[in-house]
Amino acid sequence: HMRGKLARTVPTTTATSAGANLGSSLLSSVLGSIINATTTFTQADLVGTWNYKSSDCKFESENFLKQAGGEIAASTIENKANGIFAKIGIKPGSFGMTFNADGSYSMNFGSKKLAGTYTFDEKTCKLTHIGMFGLTKNEVALTYSGKNNISILFDADKILKVISSVGSVSNNSTLSSITSLLGSYDGVKLGFEMVK
Asked: What is the pTM for the complete model shown?
């Protein structure tokens, strides 16, 4: 899938970055207004069922894309991640998330179903998942390219924990391949592109 270059970046250091203006953290500086300046994404927009479309990656600095091959690197990561995700069962038709208006959510992964609660900060587009009984907590960046198309992005080290918990990882080679892939690039977030 093709996107404009701004949709590939997660600005954190530029003077025009809304995240810098707010003095917010790296995670919460992924603002929908940077990617889609004419619209906002609200919690009401998030409510509903989202189905996995493909992997998605974004870089934490616009400077990376100014270097030769930045866009190619993003596509390379996504293509490899799609293959890795598919091996553990994360593919279209078998992975999805449902966010409810009451603050509860569920994640469907094949025949598995995980549930918990969530919070969504509309100003920073930070999505926080809290697992059942509060045992797990993930803070992720949410970006969007329309009301029916979002990406849920994890820091490189966190995505490994997520896919380990939801995926059927039969051996360490799968995790090693992801570690190697992400370790090749500084400042990359990886996650799931979802459609409603």
From this structure: 0.72
